[in-house]
Specification:
The protein has one domain (2-95): Cytochrome c-like domain (Cytochrome Bc1 Complex, Chain D, domain 2, Orthogonal Bundle). Helices cover 59% and strands 0% of the residues. The chain is built from three helices and no strands. The longest helix has 34 residues, at 2-35. Bound molecules: heme C. Heme C binds at residues 34-35, 37-39, 44, 46-47, 50, 52, 55, 61, 64-65, 69-73, 75, 80, 88. Heme C binds next to helix 1 and helix 2.
Length: 98
Amino acid sequence: MKRRILMATVVASISMMSFASFAAETGETIFKAKCSSCHPDGGNIIKPGESIKGIKDTKKITKKIRKGGGGMPAFDAKTVSDADAKSVADYIVKTFKK
Ligand code: HEC
């Protein structure tokens, strides 16, 4: 019985680990494909004052992805799914610190 619990724990942690690395990769991949043309290295080539560095609120990012504006196109759920928007937001917060 004890052994079975141990096995379940091992399986659960392995799948959690692979999920975490998968999510991180996806955020980076989406950023490079859809955002980095205007935000290379977290900057902003259209409005240099509006860089995406140092943002800590992922909701602010996912909102901006959906709404766009001020020279940024809006991305609908067909272009960037909710899960992908969340991954990109996590990637930005983690990667582009001030
Ligand atoms: C065509 C160029 C372009 C693309 C592509 C683009 N952005 Fe932007 N982004 C901008 C511009 C211009 C602004 C400034 C908008 C403003 O002044 O309101 C901006 C602003 C932002 C902001 C708000 C920064 C702040 O501090 O308020 C976030 C967050 C952001 N972009 C994230 C993204 C993400 C994530 C993607 C990819 C899914 C993306 N952008 C793709 C041009 C772009």
